[in-house]
Amino acid sequence: MTSQVEQLSARLDAAFEATGSAADLRTLTQPLLKLLTAGQPVTAEQLAVAAGRSAKQIHAALPSMPSIELDEQGRVIGMGITLNPTPHRFEVDGTSLYTWCALDTLIFPALIVRTAHVTSPCHSTGEPVRLTVSPDRVCDVTPSTAVVSIVTPDDMSSVRASFCNEVHFFASADAAEPWLTEHPGAAVLPVADAFALGQGMAAKQFTTPGPACC
């Protein structure tokens, strides 16, 4: 990681740790995302089986998950990956999904262990930004100059409002300049650096550490 990526990572880690749902995020995010890639709402019972917890525990945990989207039956339809359209199209094995923000498209392939084809408009010009993201790399970025905006709020309890709604693709650093002027303290990263930032978040915030070896 570059020093800028390390600094942004540290700030975001601290913000996530300050939320009351950090433990549930680590336990539930990965199995929930994998279930959502089927393109159908996810029941608490399905998530309980996938996460190795009881349905009662899942019903208690879901309301505290930051910005989670539930349908009228209480089924999950969005948690980073969403069935509701957003600007960030996230296609997995032919299933059209969406994500809450640009960085999500770079984080989630590692968590679902699948390759995603991403299309999202430049937040400034509307020019399509297209890329392919596998669990361990990002490639075919068009335009090659694309960047991702990053903010570092102190409070992630409403992650979509405080973070996701400000994390966009831009066709170039120049295209992002007006947005940066309006958002002092924010940053833009080349897609490769944003991918590195996302991989660190995936490992630290959205997965349960395995047992120590030796």
Care to give the gist of this entry?
This protein is an alpha+beta fold and 214 residues long. The chain has 8 helices and 11 strands.
What features would you describe in this structure?
The protein is of the alpha+beta class. It is built from eight helices and eleven strands. The protein has an eight-stranded antiparallel beta sheet with strand order 1-2-3-5-4-6-7-8. A hairpin with a 2-residue loop joins strand 4 and strand 5. The longest helix is centred in the first third of the chain and has 15 residues. The two termini are 27 Å apart. The C terminus is likely disordered.
Separation of termini?
A: 27 Å
Task: Kindly provide the radius of gyration, computed on alpha-carbon positions and rounded to a whole number of angstroms.
Answer: 17 Å
- Spatial shape: globular
Helical residues, percent: 25-40%
Structural class: alpha+beta
Separate helix tally: 8
Placed side by side, the strands forming the largest sheet appear as 1-2-3-5-4-6-7-8
Major sheet: 8 strands, antiparallel
How much of the sequence lies in strands comes to 15-25%
Keywords summarizing the entry:
214 residues; alpha+beta; eight-stranded antiparallel β-sheet; 8 helices; globular; disordered C terminus
Topology:
Blueprint: H1 3-17, H2 22-36, H3 44-51, H4 55-61, E1 69-70, E2 76-79, E3 81-82, E4 88-92, E5 95-99, H5 102-112, E6 116-121, E7 128-133, E8 138-142, E9 147-150, H6 159-162, E10 169-170, H7 173-182, E11 187-190, H8 191-205
Antiparallel strand pairs: 1-2, 2-3, 3-5, 4-5, 4-6, 6-7, 7-8, 9-10, 9-11
